[in-house]
Amino acid sequence: MTAEESNLVPDVEAAGRLILVRHGQSEGNRDRTFTHSPDVPLTPLGWEQARQYRPTRIIASPFARARQTAEILAAELGLDVQVEPELREQSYGVFAGQPYDVLVDDASYHQTPRWHWRPQGGESLADVYQRVVPVFERLRCREVGQDVVVVTHGGVMLALCAHVSGSYDELAVTPNAGIVVVEHCGASCRLVPGEEGVRA
């Protein structure tokens, strides 16, 4: 085992939590439209939602709404924000900027399980899963015994919850500024039941 690999082996005695936080309400969420740009900001409600957390470390998606949520938390706690590019939201391709309701009229959305549906020019949740799980595993191994807040997006959180639980069944999109707690110790991790985005 190399020195780098040994740094990724978690201490099996120490437990930690990754606290997945969906960004606060954005203008796209308020308007119920798929975001057309990574620079869509938080609404005033989104700013208020972001002020409710107390982490020891903060990691965020590069999209403005997630970075803003993370920066609000960081300012309150005197912490820095680390940006992880792979934690960006699922790309909705041709649906970017369109109302959420347009999916009801898209036949392809109803033809496959939700996690395999890929909009033209976009990503499926399965694609997002492949992109974000390596980041999750790296953080889990690196942040042994620590409570770390990861500020990201609904699709990313669904993919990470599916990774931890082994299934997309019983998962729901986390509301704006909602949380999902993942407890991890050694090689095991679990979703904490009853948190937003995890149905019992």
Give the SSE map.
Layout lengths: L2 H5 L7 E8 L4 H5 L12 H7 L6 E4 L3 H14 L3 E3 L23 H5 L13 H18 L4 E6 L1 H12 L13 E7 L2 E4 L9
Parallel strand pairs: 1-4, 2-3, 2-4
Antiparallel strand pairs: 1-5, 5-6
Helix percentage: 25-40%
The SSE string, one letter per element, is HEHHEHEHHEHEE
Give the CATH H-level superfamily. Answer: Phosphoglycerate mutase-like
CATH architectural grouping: 3-Layer(aba) Sandwich
Number of strands: 6
Output the number of helix runs.
7
Shape: globular
Rg, rounded, reads 17 Å
N-to-C span: 40 Å
CATH class: Alpha Beta
Give the class from helix and strand content and strand pairing.
alpha/beta
Instruction: Give the strand order, joined by hyphens, for the main sheet.
Output: 3-2-4-1-5-6
Word description of this protein:
This protein has a single domain (3-191), classed as Rossmann fold (3-Layer(aba) Sandwich), CATH 3.40.50. Helices cover 33% and strands 16% of the residues. The chain has helices spanning 3-7, 27-31, 44-50, 64-77, 107-111, 125-142, 154-165; strands spanning 15-22, 57-60, 81-83, 147-152, 179-185, 188-191. Strands 3-2-4-1-5-6 form a six-stranded mixed beta sheet, sandwiched between helices. The model is unreliable at 1-12 (pLDDT under 50).
